[in-house]
Inverse folding.
């Protein structure tokens, strides 16, 4: 069966099974990446072995780091295709894919203990998966050299591993190594890589234009959006909150008396206290009192239809934001949509309003204020003032 035929069949099966359009939209995104992967490998016919190759392609092309979203969505997608390939029926029942683990017994023991160590430090599963993946990659390298004891790891081996890594992966590799070596208390190896700094290319952040901001504001004011989606958009534009934090946001996190929103960031573990500004507070109040289904569920934003569970992950918020921007006639134009796009705009707005970088870092919940510097690239007007004039430059060449 061709890749195109089996992918067309899975979308039709999802529609027949009456899956939500947001879920189908997510699968269509996975299929687009799958088609690109097929094109890169010159494959037109589907086989389980090729599907497994795609399922394990979990390194983000943009960041060079392990992507938990790719791990889940691509794995689930390929398990569906495999069920159809083997039985002629798409099995939509819950299927658990065992996590990859080290093959060698000694590596597995270290890996298992390292997982416990990570869970003592981090609460965010994405962060834990990130470090787990980096250790698995390192163990694969050690296995190729037949090294199974942590005591046998030397500076030379560490340098060989870094050198063997792709350039866009080296930053993630170094981060993973530092964490693992701290766990091992190998200060000798930590010292050997302490002076290595990989060049990090910072792109210019793309945000909404003034025309697009006006178009989006007019859409919100027109009452054409649901109260839930209106509150989500205004929340994102004003605070830059991440989707993973909105997923866990509860009604009890909103202090109406002190007019604040209090929560612990999933990614960093930082405690954040945001002011509940009137435009956001009013939008949330209207949603809760006029539209939100009556349920014992304490989560703030929930599904519009039964079962009234929390929106499932950042993909649901991506679909909502993409739909809203499309209604506002805002084209994607090589920009990253979703809550992170609104986060960029929130930071950009604060920069343009001369809010200090330290304050912006606190609002966004950055552990390192230097992470906020990238948003300075969105302030074109002030950046122009930094450009040195080229007038009065001599045309003579001194040899």
């Amino acid at each position: 069966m061709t890749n195109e035929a089996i992918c067309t069949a899975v979308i039709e099966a999802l529609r027949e099974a009456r899956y939500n359009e947001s879920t189908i939209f997510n699968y269509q995104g996975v299929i687009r990446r799958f088609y690109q992967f097929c094109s890169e490998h010159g494959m037109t016919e589907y086989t389980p072995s090729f599907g497994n190759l795609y399922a394990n392609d979990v390194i983000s092309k943009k960041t060079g780091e392990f992507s938990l979203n790719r791990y889940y969505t691509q794995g689930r997608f390929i398990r569906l295709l495999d069920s159809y390939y083997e039985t002629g029926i798409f099995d939509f029942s819950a299927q658990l894919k065992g996590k990859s683990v080290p093959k060698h017994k000694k590596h597995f023991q270290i890996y298992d203990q390292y997982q416990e160590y990570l869970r003592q430090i981090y609460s965010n599963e994405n962060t834990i998966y990130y470090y787990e993946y980096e250790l698995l990659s390192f163990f694969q390298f050690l296995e190729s050299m037949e090294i199974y004891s942590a005591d046998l790891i030397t500076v030379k081996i560490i340098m060989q591993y870094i050198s063997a890594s792709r350039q866009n992966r080296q930053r993630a590799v170094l981060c993973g190594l530092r964490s693992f070596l701290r766990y091992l208390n190998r200060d000798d190896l930590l010292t050997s890589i302490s002076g290595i700094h990989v060049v990090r290319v910072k792109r210019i952040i793309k945000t909404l234009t003034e025309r697009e901001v006006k178009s989006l504001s007019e859409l919100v004011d027109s009452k054409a959006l649901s109260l839930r989606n209106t509150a989500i958009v205004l929340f994102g534009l004003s605070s830059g909150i991440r989707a993973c934090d909105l997923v866990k946001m509860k009604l009890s996190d909103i202090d109406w008396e002190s007019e604040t929103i209090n929560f612990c960031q999933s990614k960093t573990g930082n405690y954040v206290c945001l002011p509940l500004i009137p435009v956001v507070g009013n939008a949330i109040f209207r949603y809760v009192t006029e539209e939100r289904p009556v349920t014992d569920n304490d989560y703030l934003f929930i599904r519009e239809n039964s079962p009234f569970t929390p929106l499932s992950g950042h993909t649901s918020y991506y679909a909502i934001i993409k739909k809203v921007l499309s209604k506002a006639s805002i084209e994607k134009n090589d920009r990253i949509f979703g809550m992170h796009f609104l986060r960029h705009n929130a930071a950009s707005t604060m920069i343009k309003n001369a809010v200090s970088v330290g304050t912006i870092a606190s609002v966004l919940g950055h552990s390192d204020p230097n992470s906020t510097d990238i948003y300075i690239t969105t302030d074109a007007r002030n950046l122009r003032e930094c450009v040195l004039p080229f007038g009065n430059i001599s045309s003579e060449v001194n040899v």
In short: The chain is about 55% helix and 5% strand. The chain has three domains: 3-87, 105-193, 210-385.
